[in-house]
Design brief:
16 helices, 7-stranded mixed sheet, Rossmann fold, alpha/beta
């Protein structure tokens, strides 16, 4: 292993997105992530966006589980629970995203674990919180978006509530998990004390809406979506998405008069407002014909020369070919025994001395024997586990 977190071990009980994306980031940075899966595997081994599988392997699972080792354990079997406990005791961090109370029922809750492993950093991530009125409710990304009020920030006025078209609650929660775990490690290294950390989807997606929610709390004015497609429910013209002759372009908070001048629209001379809220839809519609007369690339050249904040609206094929995306090395590739070559988005953080690395995701139970040997089991015991249905294993 290499990377800034080399030597750190994580017992990863998480499934789906919020937990696995967090431990994938930690694995990219060099942590040894031991993925403890049920015998049938992580939920996402058997589910994928668009039902997309490559030679039987879920694209969604492959997206969030690179760089880890997999052991498949029956945690309801006494021997499986014992093995899990040994893995935890050899780890610095435990991460789980079960519903509240599941780990306690398995006999692996924080109260017990902290008594046998006081330095353990135990991170639990769930939908709504570890207690409170929604403790028994299922938690999921879209549900958290809806509860947080963000569906009323997207789309145009008159549209139904519109979700963000990606797992923003899950992904944001995963960032919070990573930062909290690293902060917990810093505290432990100074004091010798582990602790419990709690993350939830609702708080995470609300943190994304901090500015918009704070505006409401202090003015009691709800966000009002634009009819003409202004890019933010609380911002005025000229911000927004504009159709060009061959595609679309976006403009951010820029002097209205300058934008109008550059696209040949009269009537806004001397108007330096970057946030024209009065009649913002009418203003935007007056600008639209000027954008429609020029190609996207031509407009970008004009705007860049004038230091106007603008960008083309890329679809995924255009994003893949974007010169900055290519220069940044954002798209990475790894070999996999079943899917062969697999392309995905790589680590977003660059280290000058301890670079992150990208390794393939594990097959289910691929490292069961290896991990059991590391925590002290003999070959004969491992064979018995296999016969008793305590473990699942895959040779790769």
């Amino acid at each position: 292993m290499s990377g800034v977190l080399q030597g750190l071990r994580i017992a990863d009980f998480s499934q789906l997105v919020q937990g696995p994306n967090a431990t994938q980031m930690l694995a990219d940075m060099g942590a040894d992530v031991v993925k403890i899966e049920p015998l049938q595997g992580d939920w996402q081994r058997n589910w994928s966006l668009r039902d997309a599988y490559i030679n039987g392997e879920s694209v969604s699972f492959l997206t969030f589980n690179r760089g880890k080792r997999s052991i498949a354990l029956n945690l309801k079997h006494p021997s499986g629970k014992e093995a899990a406990l040994k893995i935890i005791q050899s780890s610095d961090v435990l991460l789980e995203n079960f519903r509240p109370g599941v780990m306690d029922r398995l006999g692996l809750g924080y109260k017990f674990l902290s008594s046998v492993h006081p330095k353990l950093i135990y991170c639990a991530s769930c939908g709504w919180g570890q207690d409170g009125p929604y403790i028994t409710r299922p938690g999921q990304d879209l549900l958290a978006q809806a509860m947080a009020g963000v569906l009323y920030l997207n789309g145009k006025a008159g549209d139904p509530p519109t979700p963000v078209g990606m797992g923003v609650a899950d992904i944001t929660a995963s960032f919070h998990i990573v930062s909290a775990i690293l902060a917990g490690i810093y505290h432990r290294d100074r004091t010798g004390e582990g602790q419990r950390i709690d993350i939830n989807l609702l708080n995470s997606v609300l943190s994304l809406a901090t500015q918009e929610a704070t505006l409401y709390f202090n003015t009691r004015k709800e966000p009002e979506r634009s009819e003409a497609g202004i890019g933010h429910p609380c911002v005025g013209a000229p911000m927004g998405v504009y159709r060009t002759r061959d595609g679309y372009i976006v403009v951010a908070m820029m002097p209205l008069g300058k934008v109008a001048e550059l696209i040949g629209i009269e009537g806004f001379e001397g108007n330096d407002s970057r946030n024209m809220l009065e009649n913002r839809d009418e203003v935007k519609r007056k600008l639209e014909p000027g954008f429609a007369k020029k190609n996207t690339a031509e407009l970008i050249q004009i705007f860049m020369q004038a230091d106007i904040w603008a960008a083309p609206v890329n679809n995924f094929p255009a994003m893949e070919c974007d010169p900055q995306v290519q220069h940044n090395g954002t798209i990475v590739e790894f070999a996999h025994p079943k899917v062969k070559q697999f392309r995905t988005i790589g680590p977003p953080i660059k280290f000058s001395r301890t670079p992150s690395s990208v390794k393939r995701p594990p097959l289910l139970g691929e490292h069961s024997r290896e991990i059991l040997k590391e925590i002290g089991y003999a070959e004969s015991e491992i064979e018995q586990f296999s016969r008793d249905g305590v473990i699942a294993q895959n040779a790769g």
